[in-house]
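thread: overnight batch results

M.L. [08:02]
morning all. the overnight job finished for the chain we discussed friday. pasting input first so we're all looking at the same thing
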Amino acid sequence: MTELPVQRAHLLPVVAAERRWLIDGLWAAEAVGIVGGEPKCGKSFLALDMAVAVAAGRPCLRRFAVPQAGRVLLYAAEDALPVVRQRLEGIAVAAGVALADLDIHVITAPTLRLDLAADQERLAATAAHLRPRLLVLDPLVRLHRIDENAAAEVAPLLAYLRELQRRLALAVVLVHHARKGAGNVRAGQALRGSSELHAWGDSNLYLRRHGADLTLTIEHRAAPSSGGLPLALHADGDVVALRVVAAAPAATPLARDPATSIARALAAARVPLALAELRAACHIRTADLCAALGALVQAGRVAKTARGYALADAREALSTGATRPAGP
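M.L. [08:03]
and the structure it wrote out:
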């Protein structure tokens, strides 16, 4: 019986640092994985952005560098070919390149079934002939007729793509839908179908919407993961492409300490306020309000006048005839 080949661990090949990434921080070199998300989250736009970035050697999403440009093989099962071209042209313009200069090959067959041996052989032969660095298949649901919830049916399909990746030394991006209403679970666990899909990926990208906000979660098997990167689908005429957007600055919380609330209320009023008026303006319990007022008066920051409490530095102006403004 023929033995399996083995090699001492310290003699296994080492991947140079500059060759570990297809797209720096976003997709590992020769990785298989999922671009996932609910419908209308921009999954196809993200996959096409990756295709343009790899073919052009330009940063994906104008942020993630591509160490080495390479050929891309793409199959878009849901979109008509003119739509695919229009989207690629827009993303190319956003990347600062011309689509005609990019080594992107689009499979134009009307159907491709990854669960059929004949179609598996045709895809493998095409990839072996073109030798792409990246294969993009969009979306999984249009590429088979198996039960996605049955691990026994999903596993062979994923094993075929893994074998293709290893044999031809290419990366595989598989676009896949997430379950609706799964926003409260981890992004990978929200993928529709068997858990084999989440476990299969070396690099996975997940898009999620929170109201009008779109965020990207990056997950790797052998590198640090990150989440919450804000994205937006930006349109400028015919140019439509995803881009990273600056996160909105966190709102400065209003001070909750009684002394600061009192000072703000008195400054805004511009006239003395009685105790009841001050309490209503600050939404502070009477006991806390009185304690804080006593401390402020003792410190000389607030003065008590015949008409109520006022900031000490405004006391003289208020005592010489300042009155409440008419009306509310």
